[in-house]
Amino acid sequence: MEPASRRRIEPHLEPTHFKLGDMVCDAGGLLKHAYFPQGSVLSLLTVLENGDAIETANIGREGGFGLFAAMYSRVSFNRCIVQLEGHTARCPIELLQYEFKTSEHVRNLFVSYSETLLSQVQQTVACNAMHSTEQRMCRWLLMMHDRAGGEALPYTHEFLSHILGANRKSVTLAAQAMQAAGLISYHRGTIQVLDRRGLEKASCECYAIVKERFDAFLKPPATAVQGHSRGRATAE
């Protein structure tokens, strides 16, 4: 954000700490704050009528949850849970709504991020429909490995089956195959990535596509560096 926007917002940022599995907001819930992960990862789940839910996107330090509410509607379309424990900063929606209305730079930034997040949702939908459980699990672990900074990941097969929308047996078989190939180690609900390059090769193309889109979004625009309000610069 531009310096002027940051000065108005930063005094109102409130640090919060979530644990794995905590619910930030349920689908249909009214959002009073936007949440910006600072080490945690948030998972957006689409909830079906029978109560089943599947992840369609996740958010780490590169983004925030609740920016749609700052632009249009304050009702959450998704259930948001904590996928990786850690610190998060939250900001009252009203402050972000003000910045969105008054700053062209913030409007462009929020819309650009929303488009990038939507691309992750679309790629995840295609991945869930077309790729094997093992490929999807590789993609997901790579995304978590990026956010966790290489630390071990505290996930059970049951948790992974819910996130991936796969049955537990298929997740167990995928994990066993990945461990036998030397890609990961798995012990008592803890997953450690052993061969990052091998995991990327075993993944479908979806991880690389989404990462490329977010890398492009995260390139500092000239406006953020120079401090004027002409919006995000076009990448050359």
UniProtKB/TrEMBL annotation:
Name this polypeptide is given: Transcriptional regulator, Crp/Fnr family
Single GO MF annotation: DNA binding
Entry superkingdom: Bacteria
Source species: Rhodopseudomonas palustris (strain BisB18)
UniProt keyword Transport, yes or no: no
Keywords: DNA-binding, Transcription, Transcription regulation
Domain HTH crp-type: from-to ranges: 135-201
GO biological process: regulation of DNA-templated transcription
Stored Pfam families: HTH_Crp_2
Record's signal peptide: none
